[in-house]
Amino acid sequence: MDWLLSSWSGVLQIVVSAPLILGAIIVFIRLNGLRSLSKMSSFDFSVTVAIGSILASTLLSDSVSVIDGVIGVGTLLFAQRLIAISRVTGGASSLVDNEPVVLMIKGTLLTHVLTRVRVTPEDVYAKLREANVIEMSEVYAVVLEATGDISVLHGSSDKLVDPLLLQGVKGGADALQQVGAIRSR
Q1: Separation of alpha carbons 10 and 56, rounded Å
Q2: 41 Cβ contact list (under 8 Å, min separation 6)
Q3: Secondary structure (DSSP) of the chain
Q4: What is the mean predicted confidence (pLDDT) over 59-86?
Q5: Residue 164's domain spans which residues?
Q6: pTM exceeds 0.85
Q7: What is the rounded CA–CA span in Å between residue 85 and residue 160?
Q8: Going by fewer Cβ within 10 Å, which terminus of the chain is more open, N or C?
Q9: Is the pLDDT assigned to residue 16 strictly greater than 60?
Q10: In this structure, are residues 87 and 97 in contact, taking their beta carbons and an 8 Å threshold?
């Protein structure tokens, strides 16, 4: 029955620890900026998950002190900041980031790509519905982003895709050839 009940000291530990570690997380996020909890890259997402894990461990484990939790969160956010800076200035993007990839061109699924990236046609169709696509002829391209999100480029047939939108996307050049593009500005 120990798994169902808690001691008063355990409850007190949680009640005291929660506002302390949460306050520290808020302060660190304010200092580190909005990017702290973003999903700009897979590394950013990993940091967010790790912060949640540290928060849970600090609240529920007797072996992790509030100070240990604060140091852990601070260290993760500092590392995130260093990696973000090195992505911009030092070219670490290729080491840290996944490459976005085209999954669909002009309403046609690229099944070999779907298989390689382990995305089902149903996943793509769900994103098309989410993007309010009502005709497959509206779909220029569907991209699996570096973050794992799926983006849908769609519109009326009288518009063309700006090449900047598919810059750095694997299969982006093929997509641009098939759907047409406007000249870059």
Answers
A1: 14
A2: 87, 96, 97, 98, 146, 147
A3: -TTT---HHHHHHHHHHHHHHHHHHHHHHHHH-GGGG--SSHHHHHHHHHHHHHHHHHHH-TTS-HHHHHHHHHHHHHHHHHHHHHHHHS-THHHHPPPPEEEEETTEE-HHHHHHHT--HHHHHHHHHHTT---GGGEEEEEE-TTS-EEEEE--TT--B-GGGGTT-BTHHHHHHHH-BPPP-
A4: 92
A5: 101-179
A6: no
A7: 34
A8: N
A9: yes
A10: yes
Give the residue carrying structure tokens 């991209």.
143
pLDDT at residue 3, rounded to an integer: 66
Check: CB of residue 158 under 8 Å from CB of residue 124: no
- CA–CA separation, 154 and 133 (whole Å): 7
User: In this structure, are 12 and 87 located in the same domain?
Assistant: yes
Of 41, 71, 95, which residue constitutes the final position of a domain?
95
Residues 15 and 84 placed together within one structural domain of the fold:
yes
Strand duo 108-109 + 150-154: pairing? unpaired
Any residues with CB less than 8 A from the CB of 42 and at least 6 apart, and which? 96, 97, 98, 146, 147, 148
